[in-house]
Structure formats: structure tokens, C-alpha cells
Design a protein that fits this description.
260 residues; mainly alpha; 2 domains; 10 helices; 80% helix; 0% strand
């Protein structure tokens, strides 16, 4: 569970409520079901118009991705690839078939199986990168969905504001309705800004981070698998793969590899 995401959203809502309470105005003045329906309902309706239904049906799964923390164990992956490289250089590529059962990552298992089967390097590269591209396209769907939602929410907030202003102008002969009409118009804008900037845009950013993390893992695997197939020296492979990591993690990985 990604507690930082929940904590950030909770803190944002808390600060907004704290600011509202600081005005000395009753909380009920900031609650309007019609404005909420305009922002959420209207923006969701616009998403339905502009997005395939299959993508909208995955909204729940996108929230799940954001709330879950993936532990890819990149250090372990690099260590495993270097170990496979050493074994392949020592005993031949066919010897790797004995280790396939212990490989949990399906992408790695498929790539190593290609190597064991003697598949042409260009075909291996094409097939693995095709998988990576498909993954990125799937991720791009979710990113685009929340990017659109983050743009539409303020827009429908403005539409709600215009609706409130029209209603206010239609009742200028009733001074008591001007204040309430103006408040209603501004509440809708506030709702649109809150949902866009506290929820939808941050969720889009978090999905982009998840995509980068998984893409990095796949790129490390592809580089490692192709290097094993081409018979690179394990030390060369080690240097290639460690270069994908940030400097602060490199020493730990090298220490783990050298300890084996």
C-alpha cells in the first residue's frame, strides 16, 4: 500500500477543511450537491464521450495501481542476470534451462527461454521490445484518462460558475439571492480546482512514475538477456546493468554480486 499517496490526499483535504474553518463561515456553505454533480458528473460524462468504454471500465484498476507499491527488486534481477551470464559462459546457453523454473518474472523467463532455444538475437530483441511497447501503450491509456479528467474538472467548474452567474443575474430584483448565487457560482469553481489538483493530476503523475519504474525493469531485462545471448563477459554485463541504477544503489548491487 502506497501510504504516501493516501497521506498526501488526506493532508490536502485536511488543509482545505482547516482553511474553511478558519474563515468562521459554516461548513454547510461550502457544500452543494448540485455543484458536485456538475463537476464530477459533467467531467465523467465528457470522459465517456471522448474515451472508449473499455478504458473507463479500468478506472478502478488504475486507482489500485496508484495505491500499490511495486517491489521489482531490481538489485536481485541484476544479480540473477549476472549469475546466468557466468553459467552460460561456463556451461553453455543450454545449461540455463535448468534454472528457468526458479525464475518468477514471466518476462525474464520468456527471454531466457528464447536464448536457450537458440532464437536469433534480432528476433529476441523485436519480440521483447514489442512486449515493452504494448506495456507502455496500456499505461499511456490510464495516464491519458486522468490527464483528461484533470483538464475537464476545472472546465466544468467554470461551466457551473456560469450557470450560477446566470441564475444570479436573472434574480437581480431580489437582493437576497445575489449573495447566495455568487457563492454557489464560486463553489463549483472551487470543486473543479480541488478535484483536478488534489486528485486527478497527482494520480496521473503517479501513473507516470509507475510506468517509468516498470519500463526501467524491462529495459534492464532486455539488455541482460541480449548480452547473455551474445556471450558478453559477465563483468561487462554487470557494468551495463548497474549503469541503469542511480549512483546510491550501485555499490550495494556490486557488493551483492561480488559476495556470491
Amino acid at each position: 500500500m502506497d501510504l504516501a499517496t493516501l497521506a498526501g490526499m488526506g493532508l490536502g483535504v485536511g488543509m482545505i477543511l482547516f482553511s474553511i474553518l478558519g474563515t468562521g463561515v459554516s461548513m454547510t456553505n461550502y457544500v452543494d450537491v448540485g455543484s458536485l454533480a456538475m463537476v464530477l458528473g459533467g467531467s465523467l460524462a465528457a470522459l465517456t464521450v471522448g474515451s472508449p468504454l473499455s478504458r473507463l471500465m479500468k478506472i478502478g484498476s488504475y486507482f489500485k495501481i496508484v495505491l500499490n507499491v511495486n517491489n521489482f527488486e531490481v538489485e536481485k534481477i541484476i544479480t540473477t542476470l549476472v549469475r546466468f551470464s557466468e553459467k552460460a559462459r561456463r556451461d553453455g546457453l543450454l545449461a540455463l534451462e535448468d534454472d528457468l523454473e526458479e525464475v518468477e518474472d514471466e518476462f525474464m523467463k520468456k527471454g531466457i527461454q528464447f536464448v536457450v532455444d537458440g532464437t536469433d538475437p534480432e528476433i529476441i530483441s523485436t519480440m521483447l521490445y514489442a512486449d515493452l511497447n504494448q506495456q507502455q501503450e496500456r499505461h499511456a491509456d490510464g495516464i491519458k484518462l486522468f490527464d483528461d479528467w484533470g483538464s475537464l474538472s476545472p472546465a466544468f467548474g467554470m461551466i457551473g460558475t456560469l450557470v450560477g452567474l446566470i441564475g444570479m443575474l436573472a434574480n437581480l430584483d431580489d437582493p437576497d439571492s445575489i449573495g447566495s448565487g455568487m457563492a454557489l457560482a464560486l463553489i463549483t469553481t472551487m470543486y473543479g480546482s480541488i478535484f483536478a489538483n488534489l486528485f486527478f493530476i497527482p494520480i496521473r503523475n503517479k501513473l507516470q512514475d509507475r510506468d517509468k519504474e516498470e519500463t526501467l525493469v524491462k529495459e534492464i531485462l532486455i539488455e541482460g538477456i541480449l548480452s547473455i545471448q551474445s556471450g558478453d563477459n559477465p563483468r561487462i554485463l554487470e557494468s551495463k546493468l548497474v549503469a541503469f541504477l542511480p549512483p546510491e544503489k550501485r555499490e550495494a548491487v556490486l557488493a551483492e554480486i561480488n559476495a556470491e
